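Forwarding the complex inputs:
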Amino acid sequence: MSVRRRELLIGGAALGAGALASRVPGGASAGAAEAGTTPAPSLSEAIPFEGPHQAGVLEKRPGRAIVASFDVIAGSRGELADGLRTISERARALTAGYDALFGPTGEGPTPDSGIVGPRVDPDGLTLTIGLGASLFDGRYGLAGRRPAGLKPMPTFPDDALVEAECHGDVLLQLCANTEETLLHALRDISRETRGVLGPRWKIEGFLPSAQRESGAGRNLLGFKDGTSNPDVANAKTMAELVWTGSEEPAWARGGTYAAVRIIRNRVEFWDRVSLSEQELMIGRDKAKGAPLGKDRELADPDYASDPDGKRIPLDAHIRLARPRTPQSEGSRILRRGYNYSRGYDEADQLDMGLIFVAFQRNLETQFEAVQKRLEGEPLVDYVVPIGGGYFFVPPGARGSQDWVGSALFV
Amino acid sequence: MRAKADRFFVGPRAGLVAALLTVLLGATVAGCGGGGGAGSSTTAAAPASKLADRVLVSGANPAVKPADLARPIARYKRHVAAALGTMEGDVRRLQGAVDAGDLAAARQAWLDADASYESIGAAYGAFGALDARINGETAGLPGGAGSPDFTGLHRIELALFGRGSVADAGPYVPRLAADVRALRRKIPSLRIEPLEYVLRGHEVFEGALDLQLSGRASPWSSDALVALDANLRGTRVVIGTLRPLIDPREPLLIGRIDRSLDVLARTLRGLAGPGGTMPRWDRLPAAEKTLVSGQTAAAAEELAYVPEVVDPRPLVPERSAIGAVQAE
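Prediction (whole assembly, two chains):
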């Protein structure tokens, strides 16, 4: 195929994606991604902020993300409400796009940082707001309003948590096609809410280029990750696995729970391990991503034919994480993570790994059930959870005057 | 929503910009001999509903002239002279404690002297070389703390807090006393430029965020909270002198600035121990650091509007006010 023709096709696909941009874009599942060409990211791609559910959960992951946690420092309940309302107002504008206001001539503060130029394009931006268990203490009169399934993230046996990178009152997950769109949005929101949200931790993530290969992207261990995600286009599955329902108080239905984990990968150690040993720990073929002994990434690992783990060891990561038994299927989670990389540690080793983000209806029967099965797996020598937290992601803003979290303040 | 604008106000800038645009694009433009931006107002597609929501005042007061700042600056110079007088007393006590070999008293006198100097941050730019002699830090000095040019307050801080040595501070205290005295004598003839002065309204806080709360300014005493408290008092003086100019132009701005400074002052009072002693910044729990930093930055966001409102230069609307999108 000539380059010119290829550009045309990609251009056409991008237009299609823009036109289709809706809360649940078709083809967001791994299957569709494997089957077809991935559309080129488009600056004009706009994902609506408003809706019954928040954006940034079911949408296909764009190439960049910032996950930032804050502690509320507002002096009163009213100030907290103002801050949350402001986040939604800004998110609504930023995800729709607008002409930047650089400000009048003079020495006054510039209204817009200007880092994306005179036109603020939506660029596939989603801004997802989460609330941590610590917000529901006595400070702002929310003690009685805590969502039924929200609790602080516990310390699991294989964790090496750093307190400064854990928990938080409010979580912002920003995802977009480009880094500058994320930084523009973060600066915009931060300056508007500086007296309300005190930064706690922040981490920036990226995905491998979608043009590189089809199927799930690779993590920094070099393996395809996210292959067996539930199908986001299936509303029934999403209602079962992701969105909260009657188990929650009325205001919290249609939300979801985010389990965020900053998982450091000991990549230099990992690279010193043989391919076969790596594959046996993961349970997949490194090149193709197929379950060991199978030839396609999406092939069923068929554990029934391998009860003793001769093909895929019983303690392989994918087998423990999702044994594909009738009892385990209800514990499936919607993973939406990003890779991260940021400098060196005290021993001059690369500090990189995975910003694990999983959405689920119930933290205990889903994320924690998976986590429990993974305890002590061979892979734990190479992956070290160091941070993160649990957050409730409230239902979306309904209409142009509503804001995420408003129901907490009526 | 208009009625709620004040209560739900968090980010000030959209409203103020809208108000300023009104000024810029409205009546005063004619007086300034240009209408370059007027036609572009309709293209300001930045969340227009939000701007409309938050227009605070469409001030039509005449622009501030340099002469309007003469009285505020004169008042501020009296504050500077008084603070330097206090600082001379602090340094005398410091000298006495050093002579007596009393480390605890020397440290307290040093903290007082540092606070006195930090309360006049709005004038540093006018002090010239004396500022570097009095308040110079190791940053930028070849050899850092070992540099022969490192001699002022912070060299004495290194002696008293870093080395716990009164003797090590000895050689530097008389020189500091002489520099402070020289500076105080200079104040009556000191020239503070009007533009410089209005910018200091928020730059003192920018300095606090950059140097104090980062722990860089006072690495041995970690007295960032002492300095910030003094910065806050000094900023209140600056704002107090400008109040008559700000009030008729942006009546809501003064209220927001006062509130943001009050909130910070209350937090600082809450952190102070018996007798008003501030804890060391490097020993403050992370949550309290986050609170102080957040409230300082939030105040800086409010204070940043001061220069715009009292800018003594004539409006020059030849550049587009709206983005860079308009072809000139």
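The first helix of chain A runs from residue 3 to 20.
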